[in-house]
Design goal:
It is built from 10 helices and 8 strands. The protein folds into 2 domains: 46 residues; 266 residues, Rossmann fold (3-Layer(aba) Sandwich).
């Protein structure tokens, strides 16, 4: 073997060895992040009186949280979380509103602890979940991407949705969320190169606690270390696009749109959003001062008060 061939052989062996070392280090880091995520999720969920259940819905292993009485004079409430995040963001809301009704918050497919399901099947999954729960009439609340999904469900099942709450719903005139997770701002590096994503989501980032930063860094990191990014890349991003105006007049339920006034992710887009809201015959908008895109986490009392007033008005009680 001549010298040049020997050098090439050595370089190939060295490159293969380096690739194996890097891959193993990456696997260790992924396992470490997932372990931290499990601990953080368990610590957080343990604070609330919720039961975690595992169901198979439309062929997808689905994790959900449930709280409250199974039988009640009030209809059950389904909470649908937004993109990137998971159902645990609803737990304080679920605990507060479950004193007199059943509240269920599922992890969307490819999010949280749920399994993978192609994005094109998301609406079918939600329909199958409601059928699995056996609900004929219920209240529906969706946040961000979950709001866009809830709009589509309510337009197709107008007799089932009694009241509809849409918290900063995607697809309401913004075309696409203005901020998206970046690897360098999602806790994957020792330091961020710009504001962290949680600071962009919060209306008052100066009030963020170290615990919240840690929890959300783990959620955003999991976006890149799981198949969630693949879900969005294979079509999930379409659930963030504008909702067709033609769907909205078919929504029969009274609707409450809730927006944080400082929402930079899916802001209320002036006349364009107002025109969309006006397509629903019985809809109104409620703004939460100083809050951002996650009012249910940033200021639970303000968000819960708005929901409770809307859902529990005297003329909405089940007979």
């Amino acid at each position: 073997m001549n010298r040049r061939a020997a050098i090439r052989a050595f370089a190939a062996v060295a490159g293969t060895a380096a690739t194996i070392v890097v891959a193993r280090q990456a696997q260790r880091r992924v396992r470490a992040f997932r372990a931290q995520g499990r601990v953080a999720r368990d610590e957080y969920t343990a604070r609330f009186p919720v039961e975690r259940r595992a169901l198979t819905v439309a062929g997808c292993e689905t994790n959900l949280y449930a709280a409250g009485p199974v039988k009640s004079e009030w209809p059950p409430l389904l909470l649908v979380h937004g993109g990137v995040i998971e159902a645990a963001t609803w737990l304080e809301t679920a605990a507060a509103l479950s004193t007199d009704r059943l509240v269920v918050a599922p992890d969307l497919p490819a999010h949280g602890l749920s399994g993978y399901l192609p994005p094109a099947h998301l609406l079918h999954w939600l329909e199958a979940l409601v059928e699995h729960l056996g609900w004929q009439r219920f209240d529906l609340c969706g946040h961000s991407m979950g709001g866009a999904l809830s709009i589509r469900y309510a337009s197709r099942h107008r007799q089932r949705v009694r009241r509809l709450v849409l918290c900063a719903p995607a697809g309401t005139g913004q075309h696409f969320p203005r901020v998206w997770p970046e690897p360098w701002n999602a806790g994957l590096l020792p330091f961020p190169l710009a504001d962290t994503l949680i600071e962009k989501v919060w209306g008052q980032p100066e009030r963020l606690t170290p615990t919240l930063r840690r929890q959300f860094d783990l959620i955003f990191s999991d976006f890149f270390l799981s198949r969630r990014w693949l879900w969005y890349g294979s079509g999930g991003w379409r659930w963030l696009l504008d909702v067709p105006l033609s769907l909205l007049p078919s929504i029969a339920a009274p609707a409450l749109f809730v927006w944080g006034e400082r929402d930079r992710i899916v802001p209320f887009h002036g006349r364009r959003t107002a025109r969309l809201v006006a397509q629903i015959s019985n809809a109104r908008v409620h703004f939460l001062p100083s809050l951002g895109h996650l009012p249910q986490i940033e200021s639970p009392p303000a968000f819960i008060a708005a929901l409770r007033e809307f859902l529990s008005a005297e003329d909405t009680k089940c007979l």
